[in-house]
Amino acid sequence: MESIWSQGCQIRAREPLSGDLECEVAVVGAGMAGVLIAHALQEAGHQVVVLEANRTGSGQTGNTTAKVTAQHGLIYEKLIRTLGKDRARQYGQAHQAAIQAYRDLIRRERIDCGWQDCSAYVYGKDREQLQGEAEAAASLGLPAVFTRDLPPWLPAEGAVRFDHQGQFHPLQFLRAVSGQLTIYENTPVQIAEGDLLYTTRGKVRAEHIVFACHYPFVNVPGLYFARMHQTRSYVLALEHVPRLDGMFLGVGPDSISLRNHGDLLLLGGGGHRTGENPEGGRYDFLRQVAGAWFPGSREVAHWSAQDCMTPDGAAYIGPFAPSRPHWYVATGFQKWGMTASMVSALVLRDLIDGKESPYGDVFDPGRLEAGLLPGLAKEGGPAVKGIMKQVFQRPKLQADQLPAGHGGIVKLDGKKAGAYRDENGDLYPVATRCPHLGCQLAWNPDEKSWDCPCHGSRFDCRGELLSGPAQRGICHGKG
After folding, report:
1. Under 8 Å CB-to-CB from 415, ≥6 apart: which residues?
2. Which one of 28, 30, 142, 342 is CB 3.0 to 4.6 Å from 98, fit for a cystine?
3. pLDDT in tens, 416-453
4. CA dihedral over 99, 105, 107, 112, signed as positive or negative
5. The 3-state secondary structure of 394-438, one letter per residue
6. pTM for the whole thing?
7. Which residues contact 166 (CB under 8 A, 6 or more apart)?
8. Is pLDDT above 70 for 99?
9. C-alpha distances in angstroms, 26 versus 146, 203, 356, 378, 410?
């Protein structure tokens, strides 16, 4: 299930770290956020190294739909209500500045990444709601208008349109920008203490440390595991489809995302909280939509992505925790990682330069306004439920009853285990306990993976780690 971006773009391999080193800034993670942060700091005169557990761009950057926009669904009315107008304006201005920063960098470096200026739409059936959102966004100085000028097949009564947004090929862009950086691949950071990062390849001492690894693996301080959750969404790439004038996102639980890339249409949706997809069928849902909206279209690829979600809708970009004054974080991008990655570069460059960021308040990871506290309490519920399941839930199925092509929690040799039986009948047992904080894992039939409903760690059907915050796999008897 490779994305069209990964299929069509190779980024050169880098050597792993070969011993201890010292640097001014160490960035953990070589996805879009880590690379842009490192690039911005290097341009500002800092000496930067990037530590990547796998390969550059091998995480969520390669699975995005690559929309670069400040149009993030129906968010501006909510931000004005929960964070106030000044911070809502900061949020919008930051993402507008990020779009222009992409344009400037692409032009300056002559990067061939298929950048296109276009409009972004959020469409739906509640005209009054959409008009209210357009008015809220426009009151913040954003290029927002309500429109009914939409494709006739789109099930909508109107949309909020943002003009002068953008889309591109994310890995072609990443390949160009990362080529100028010092990156150590296959160098996972396992422990962070003070100014030291301990990797499997050696120690790195840095004056400043930036965690740009999608989901921070450090639990204390920061407590990010209690302040956000992860969601998954799914994408089809279709050919024999009409050309769209813009990027589109629907409102509601079954909302559909659309954008073109060359002759292909990317159709996305089917989102759910990670670890909460027991019945599967997410790709089938998208195929049904494709068949209804675009008869005669043909699927050429499909893939999925994962995103970190915060209670108030704004990312965490800034100081990691008060007790770690030289640590920084960029996470919680709310499904808008391409734009938020550039925002992270703008904000963290200023902070590490000793300047005040004009956008710092709205993204400050230390914000704990009263309106945010109910959301924080809500984040803890699934974690408690997941831990209780691991302790008390007993499997109903014996391992030898598991059908071919299926996975689930079973009883194996008298003990609880996770297991997947492949089409040949071979059984792959795994531990059911997530090694991050002990929640019970859940089988995802759409991707044949073990997913954590608490904090979003994922493992393949054999127990190998796919994504954190967990740092090791769940081979049977471990974790």
Report:
1. none
2. 342
3. 888 899 888 889 999 889 999 888 999 999 999 999 99
4. negative
5. CCCEEHHHCCCCEEEEEEECCEEEEEEECCCCCEEEECCECCCCC
6. 0.93
7. 67, 68, 69, 99, 102, 103, 115, 116, 117, 118
8. yes
9. 44, 11, 21, 33, 43
